[in-house]
Write a structure and sequence with these properties.
It comes from Flavobacterium capsici. The protein contains 3 helices and 7 strands. The chain is an alpha/beta fold. A 7-stranded mixed sheet has the order 1-4-5-6-7-2-3, with helices on one face.
Length: about 130
């Protein structure tokens, strides 16, 4: 996967963690992502029912894994206390382009364990045959 990451996206430990999580999600590196998920993780893909718990989280990622990101662009990562946000876009293997924003809440400001994720995903460009 090709990475386009703005230079200011890794100048703090929490930013680096969010960057690595975003890369793991885009490449569907489920074992790596699961290392940072609280056992009661809550993931809301806006417009869909929340995904609760590590088992459902892993299952949801597995269902999505047939169309991996070919290029991941991270425009910015913001962190403050126990919260973080990232936004960018993904060019998928099938040619589709999605814009995304993910909002993270960690168990505490010092924790690396993710308690909640809210994801906004927008179709920017549909693949053409």
């Amino acid at each position: 996967m090709k990475l386009n990451i703005k230079p200011n996206c890794a100048n703090a430990p929490k930013k680096e963690l969010v960057k690595q999580l975003t890369i793991a999600f885009a490449s569907y590196d489920i074992p790596k992502a699961m290392n940072f998920m609280d056992s009661n993780i809550s993931w809301t893909l806006v417009g869909e029912a929340p995904i609760i718990g590590k088992a459902q989280f892993a299952e949801a990622l597995e269902k999505m894994s047939d169309n991996k990101a070919k290029t991941l662009t991270i425009e910015s990562i913001l962190t403050h206390g126990k919260e973080a946000a990232v936004h960018g876009e993904m060019l998928m293997e099938d040619g589709t382009v999605f814009g995304f924003s993910d909002f993270y809440e960690f168990n505490s400001s010092k924790s690396e364990m993710v308690k909640t994720i809210v994801s906004y995903v927008v179709l920017k460009e549909k693949k053409t045959d």
